[in-house]
Structure prediction request, 953 residues.
Amino acid sequence: GMRFLLLFSRQGRLRLQKWFTPTPEREKKKIIRDMTTMVLARKPRSCNFLHWRDLKIVYKRYASLYFCLALEDQDNELLALEILHRYVELLDKYFGNVCELDIIFNFEKAYFILDEFLMGGEIQETSKQIVNRSIEASDMLQETMEEYMSKPAF
Amino acid sequence: MSPSVRLQEMIRVIRSARTQGEERGVIQRECAAIRAQFRQADNGGRSHNLAKLLYVHMLGYPAHFGQMECVRLIASPRYSEKRVGYLGAMMLLDEKQDASLLITNSIKNDLSHSSQYVQSLALCTLACMGSAEMCRDLAPEIDRLLRASNSYIKKKAALCAVHIVRKVPELGELFTPAARSLLSEKNHGVLHGAVVLITELCERNPETLEQFRKTVPDLVQIMKGLVTTGYSPEHNVAGISDPFLQVRILRLLRILGRNNDAASDAMNDLLAQVATNTDSSKTAGSAVLYETVLTVMDIKSESGLRVLAVNILGRFLLNNDRNIRYISMTSLQKIVVTDHNAVQRHRGTIVDCLKDPDASVKRRALELSLALVSAVNIRSMMKELLLFLSSCPPELKAQAACGIFNAAERYAPSQRWHIDTILHVLTTAGGDVRDETVPNLIQLITTASDLHCYTVHKLYRALITDISQQSLVQVACWCIGEYGDLLLRGECDEIEPVQVSEDDVLDALETVLQSHMSSPATRGFALTATMKLSTRITDNVDRIRSIVSIYGSCIDVELQQRAVEYNALFKKYDHMRAAVLERMPVIDKSSPDHSNGESGGGALKEVEPPKLKQGEAVTAQEPANQVCDLLDLLGGSEEPPQPGPILGSTAPGPASTAGGDLLDLLGGLETPETPETPALTPAPTLTVYEKNGVTLKLHCHKQSETGLTVTLTASNSSDWDMSSFTLQAAVPKSVQLHMKAPSGDFLPARGTATLTQTVLLNNPNKVMLKMRIRMSYTSQGSAFQDTMQIDSFPGPACH
Prediction:
């Protein structure tokens, strides 16, 4: 299964972190440092796979953001590239031509979308449309509930 | 102002901070405000405050004071607050925090909530950070949801169950029935979750694995459906229908088919179909093919299918996408041992990948190339590998050099090729080879006796070109010292003759000695080589003498010591110089001092001529069998005496076991700095032999608990001088014997002078000390020999 997913900018600023196994705070910081250093040092036309400790690291750059996924030994690296791509597509559909700023200013939405796509280090839903519909429905629920809650009690 | 703008406003303010200090200031203010807000009663902005805190947390600032707020928000009836609360729990709480237990009840309630989106939040959080305790508590709920709910919830419950099984493996039994029935679902999300759950259950429990083997036909059916269906817009990725699900099913099939013929048979056709029909022009298809190959190679598949799989990997090697090339090589590496011949067929492509610009691909290509070297292809492979070595990235040089050495050692078609190869590596990557390369190469060179001339010429030429590669310089110095005479002779079959003069050679060695690039060890090599040349050259011995005497005051203690001893070898022990500096015998690789694991330092010492204090041979030429004659005479109940290591020390320190004995001897003994015999102490002296005018007196002096110094004094009372006077000694087996240099070998007539021979003994087992002595000398043109045995030694100290 997947161990963690990190999104960071070209300057090494973290934009999203999802940990699929319990990790102490200090360890998380170290891992983030290691990942950003390793990935940002890669030459432009390198392959997208790295080895780090006992994990396989799959990374891909989309515009100004690096997406970095850590896999266990039996996980399929080529499929991991597809997973990253699928996540970007979901973000793109939701935000409309997603860019880094969308993820910065609406980070909680990025997490909500991720939590409809992956869970517990595994893929949760393989259909793009279903994920999109679920997010829309949740957002709708949030708005209606808020609207409902803000109406004066009778 | 709408609350969410406040979050975004804060983010904007933080981002506009120009320095780290400014940012910290803004964040401190915001956190203070958030803390205050948390303490207040419900003000409608709670979720936004927590969201702000979560943003700050992501920047790396502490946010633990938000943990309780998460707990509160999760318990809220408002969906918006639950949503952020659960997100906060996943980010700030883990199973180690006490606060995490507090949300167990909320999760339990929310699992049965009327809204599936609330249920979803609970499931997601449980699967993310549920502790073992929480898992045990909520497992029955999850099982219920696995059976009776809509597909949206079922798929999430399945992954929740996976998490529970990882945390509490015993609970796997609980989920097994539900998992089985989920395989008949049509919804891909649920199916995917089911396959993941079944995989997890099977990996943890062999009995469960047995049970689920029966599902192979069902899984095969599902795969067939995916592979043969027409275009399905909902699941299509680059022409492949749901590659995510296909890969997971293939992985499960792998586990089920492993070590089981029946299961492997049942999936054989399907795997062939997938392997043949999947379009690999895009990553999605390649991912499926990759997983198929892994499965085929891991189960008990037909040989035809295996060949097909290896060919897919071969095709991958030619793919434009370097990710696919990389994957192909990692897979080939895994099977190169079991399917060696199949992988050999793709050797050409693999070797081409050595030139790939990508460093990861290069590394994989190197590992795989080394694994493919065989006796058949060694020459062509080595050409490629040496080419690679000269231009490879620095981080791969050591690995490449090591691999090349191993390959050369295993498959060298000739000794000359082997030596040439090693020399090539030392010239291109000398700095990256391991320490034991130097003694290994020296050992190899000594065994190739007909190539000594060739080798020393090549090394000399390499040395005068470049003295920066320490390993190369060390080997070159050693060879020049050993085979300098061959170098000076000029002619050599295999190399164009070049006139090398004695001065040229000495110049080269002196350059090494004086260069700041030479390490201390290298300079030691050069000095010793220079010394050895004193017996191999004729004209320039004085130059060597002066070099040696200069280094007698060198600041490097090691060099100084060597120089001082070599000086002594010139002055006092000149008569022994030839013997000491003689050509070395072939070094036996299997001797204990010459193991591969030793660091360069240890092994090197054996290769050097011994330091003078280790004692010199009595005679250089005495063959072993003559001393064994001595042994035959002693028989019966006594322990047969062991010949002292006289013979072992004839040639300058070869790395044989005798060297080890020499070292052991000096353990308990007090060794004087110079090999001069110690002055006789006024203790009892025993006359052990008197015949034909020769008198031999023995005197012993106890050195330690087990150590003894025996001094033999010979005198000649006859009217004729005796020359070539030598003494040999043998002692019981457990006693260690060490003969020091005799004071001379000329015994003048009429007792005008005596000869002394010191013998050091170590008697650790305190056996009865006996000694057998053989004497030989020449007098009046004839050779004389005699033997005597000493059964008791004088003085109470000598037992």
The two ends of chain B are 107 Å apart (CA to CA). Residues 20-39 of chain B form the longest helix (20 residues). Residues 435-582 of chain B form one domain.
